[in-house]
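Help! Submission page says 'invalid entity' but I think these are all valid:
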Amino acid sequence: MNNSLSTSPTPAGPAGPAGTAGPAGTASSRVFDHLRKDLVGGCFVAGEKLAINVLKDRYQVGLSPLREALNKLAAYGLLVQENQRGFRVPKLSRDELDDITQVRLEMEGMALERAIANGDSLWEADLLAAAHRLKRVDITLDKGEEWEYLHTQFHRTLVAPCGSVWLLRFIEQLHDQFDRYRRLGPKMPTIRQELDEQHHQLVELALQRDAKTARELMDDHIHKSYEVALKRYQEHV
Amino acid sequence: MNNSLSTSPTPAGPAGPAGTAGPAGTASSRVFDHLRKDLVGGCFVAGEKLAINVLKDRYQVGLSPLREALNKLAAYGLLVQENQRGFRVPKLSRDELDDITQVRLEMEGMALERAIANGDSLWEADLLAAAHRLKRVDITLDKGEEWEYLHTQFHRTLVAPCGSVWLLRFIEQLHDQFDRYRRLGPKMPTIRQELDEQHHQLVELALQRDAKTARELMDDHIHKSYEVALKRYQEHV
DNA sequence: ATAAGTTAAAAAATCGATTATCTTGTTTAA
DNA sequence: TTAAACAAGATAATCGATTTTTTAACTTAT
């Protein structure tokens, strides 16, 4: 996977399931990936203050690489840094969830249209593969990690050939933010069935190059996810 | 000003002209602001590798705060971090300039429409003030810094009440990226007259709540800036 | 000559300890 | 009784030194 924030030419590695960067390079980048995953996955309580010394033990690194990772995460928006009192997990709010969703609708819609215009046949193949892998995940066996990873991958693949590096970057960032809400509480989406059905239809429409309908469906898909996220958020207050 | 990346509750201070964070808190945040300004202002050559020890002297800080700032800037997109070989200034390319411009058109247009829908009368006052200050800058006296700062402020004010924190964040980031091109070479925009005229018209349209025309003008304004940036880029190769 | 191997110098990343700042509980003065 | 002042402990930020990795110059073998 190799997210664009990590230090660039990660040796790739076997690309383990959950977005981890293989054997990985620096200590700093390893903590970054790990912490990012945990923050998005809801391992921390929103608003919580992070005790650096605790993190140091938890992630088995020294202060310097840890602080470097925290600084990156703050610039990325997964942490808030306060003047002389360390880092904390950003609070959640209904308003922000709505905001994120709105912007996602605009940006992912745009990106999808462009991807459908530009994507080649290699893209079609990747898309089919990603959707297939996602569908194949055994809910009973999966601890949630596998589905989450493949879901992210699917959406990444879908918009990948949109032609705009910056659009992709922002979309990724918004996904992380959105998932802080969607992944509150229980592991598996209750309506996975429905969502997977939409994923399948999205592939169909992409292959048919029906940008307009695809975008409508994407809107719908985001709205569905929004409802899940909102419910989770409201139950979690 | 107090950019959203700096550590939050900066004591405000007298808010010096050029985006600096007043007396400022941590060494880390001071270097961050300073480096950000220099990177956007073109003090470094694109593609250049940053020698940490040189920066350490140049900005008068130790390794730790410096590295923390560099890490933040990398997450923000003003630096590229390579696996075990430090930081470098991102290369410039025609493709990227086009990309940035495209996304700016979409996002700032959207933000402007929303701002015009939401902005109250305090906003109208702020807008008039920002435009006025911008117009008043004496080109002969100004070393370029003042105009640049007020220009940024004007555009910030224009979209401020759009209602989306994330949109504002992305727009700010894109501005920084765009300015890496626009501010190549000579200090003052050759067509400042024209640009200031557009600024003035934008205020007019905003006050009249004419969202549609305002957006068209904004598109035009971005296109004009794009031409400046492109020319600068091509001359700078 | 070219390419693989070797090694010394340079640079990046990390560690351990120090310094500065905040927090909290307690005291003291109004 | 309340609020300002203080002091001790906890936490954040920074420094200086060490370790690791890369770079570049120089061999040596094919």
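Support: the input was valid. A stray whitespace character was the problem, and the output above is from the cleaned input. Chain B touches chain A through 40 residues (CB under 8 Å).
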